[in-house]
Amino acid sequence: MSEPILQLDGVVTDIGRYHILKGVTLDVPRGQVTMLLGRNGVGKTTTLRTIMGLWRAKAGRILLEGQDMAPVPVSSRAALGIGFVPEDMGIFSDLTVEENMILATRSGPLDPARRDWLFAAFPPLRTFWRSEAGNLSGGQKQMLSIARAMAEERRLYLIDEPTKGLAPAIVSTMVGALRELKAQGASILMVEQNLSVARALGDRAAVMDDGAVVWAGAMAELSADPALQERLMGLSVEAH
Amino acid sequence: MLVNLISGDRPRSTILTILLLVVLVCLALAPFLFPGVRPLDTAARICVFILLVASYDLLLGYTGIVSFAHTMFFGFGAYGVALASIHMERGWDALLVGTLAGALAAAVVAFVIGLFSLRVRAIFFAMITLAVASAVAVLVSQLFQLTGGEDGLTYQIPRELTPAFRLGEVFGVRINGRILNYYLVFFTCLALFLVLLRIVNSPFGTVLEAIRENDFRAEAIGYRVVAYRTAASCLSAAMAAFAGSLYAIWLRYVGPDTTLSFEIMLDVLLMVVIGGMGTMYGAVLGAVIFVLAQNYLQTLMGAGAGLTQGLPLIPQLLDPNRWLMWLGILFVLSVYFFPTGIVGRLRTGK
């Protein structure tokens, strides 16, 4: 197996006086989708935000293709090729859909072929291309948020709960688009609560509990073992 | 071509377009449409304040930075021209050197303030700018030998820009250096306003808007927020200094009250809010309404008081000495009825 694209080694993050991450160790393989699973409040979102530099790691190491990320400022992490889709979508409401997309392309103008591919994956973006993003529906905003991360090829995608609170029809659009991204060989670390989505997309899974990764392995292995799911998360794939 | 000139930033409202055209025509033909010293002076002030307010809107409306040091930069430009005119030979080179030195000084000071304080929270930045601006105002008053202290400075500008320079008559209006001076102010303000429109409609302007809305997110997609904020702060300061230089060229006098006072800062803030934050055209309408109210509300009230002399209470309410009260009421009403500013209201109808 090739060297992982991202390695977390004993990452500790405090938010104020709370110890949120208590030594996260995780490998994200290149060209695969790794699902970060676990109950609410176990540190999944904090893990992504720490990788992005939005929370400072108090201890431990984060390596992107062997490069230590500790001295790299947040803006430079994006420039290194990390595309981040936050849980709150983080779109710029006062800007148009087009302007949101242009902001996300750092290597030059938005490639027309890539734009057409995104239009095919997320048709509402074409319809509302010149509209203010603040006027989009929740699902459309999420599409924009993901499309923005996909506006150009990234080394790694960090995606935080892309299907949270969305209607089933929009969830299937999301899953379709992410499948296409996966087919292109993208490396993705995704937080997801919806286990059927996790099963549809994930190659690998890492389960967190109390600020640490307590299990890591193949998604198929987790899917096939209801007892393991029950033990790790108190949930069952079959239940979703 | 016109759309290119305004960088594709259409007014997006018929009424707004008409209002802007009326303002443009009135200012462009002010010496001919409104002859006399006072109307021309008002028109020149409007031009200068449009530029000053637009430059502040780049900071407040587009970048989301609250600064109280904007009039300080305005003062840098004004004192730059005054000092250069006093210490160099009377001439165009003095104006040029003073203007450029003022703008450079403003940009450098904005850079230093930005570098040290744009990382902190907005409220702390506002406090720091307030402290720096107050310190500079005190310093200008204290350094009497250099700045003229509270009395300010008077100086000579090129003869071509003074009333003594006469060129003849056009449409019954005597063209003199004062009118040339007005057109220098008008065309420079127009050109710099178009530059500001270009800036806010460029990719740089889009990043500033993104930062205003969500600075963490902007940082996370790869933009160095402090660098962009500092750049916006420097540009805005330089533009304010240009406005100050033009004001100094127009007045041939600078003093703490005309360029550095906190009252001007509050006026600028009100003009931005009334016109509509984050819209350059808001600066135009805000400045026009405010400067006109400052200059003519008293006269209008005097006329109203005269007309209603026989009625009870109303003449007292319209007493010209109460003009500040009515100005205050007008602002409260405008903020109440136009929470997104006049331009915001005209564009959205809400």
TrEMBL record, chain A:
What CDD domains does the record tag this protein with? ABC_TM1139_LivF_branched
UniProt keywords, alphabetically: Amino-acid transport, ATP-binding, Nucleotide-binding, Transport
Q: Which family does it belong to?
A: Belongs to the ABC transporter superfamily.
Source taxon at top rank: Bacteria
The protein depicted here goes by the name Amino acid/amide ABC transporter ATP-binding protein 2, HAAT family
**Record-linked PROSITE patterns:** ABC_TRANSPORTER_1, ABC_TRANSPORTER_2
Q: Which GO molecular-function terms appear in the entry?
A: ATP binding; ATP hydrolysis activity; branched-chain amino acid transmembrane transporter activity
The answer on whether this UniProt entry bears the keyword Secreted reads: no
Q: Does the keyword Transport apply?
A: yes
Q: Write out the GO biological process terms.
A: L-amino acid transport
- Every copy of the ABC transporter domain together lies at 6-235
UniProtKB/TrEMBL annotation, chain B:
Which Pfam families does the record cross-reference, listed alphabetically? Answer: BPD_transp_2
What membrane topology does the UniProt entry give?
Multi-pass membrane protein
Q: Kindly give the InterPro entries that the UniProt entry links to this protein.
A: ABC_transp_permease (IPR001851), LivM-like (IPR043428)
Q: Which GO terms describe its molecular function?
A: branched-chain amino acid transmembrane transporter activity
Q: Which UniProt keywords apply?
A: Cell membrane, Membrane, Transmembrane, Transmembrane helix
Record-linked CDD domains: TM_PBP1_LivM_like
A single cellular component GO annotation: plasma membrane
Keyword Nucleotide-binding belongs to the record: no
Q: Does the keyword Phosphoprotein apply?
A: no
Its predominant location is membrane
Tree of life domain: Bacteria
TM regions (residue ranges): 15-34, 46-74, 94-116, 123-144, 180-200, 221-249, 269-293, 300-318, 324-344
Compartments reported by the entry: Cell membrane
Instruction: Specify the protein name.
Output: Amino acid/amide ABC transporter membrane protein 2, HAAT family
Source organism of the structure: Citreimonas salinaria
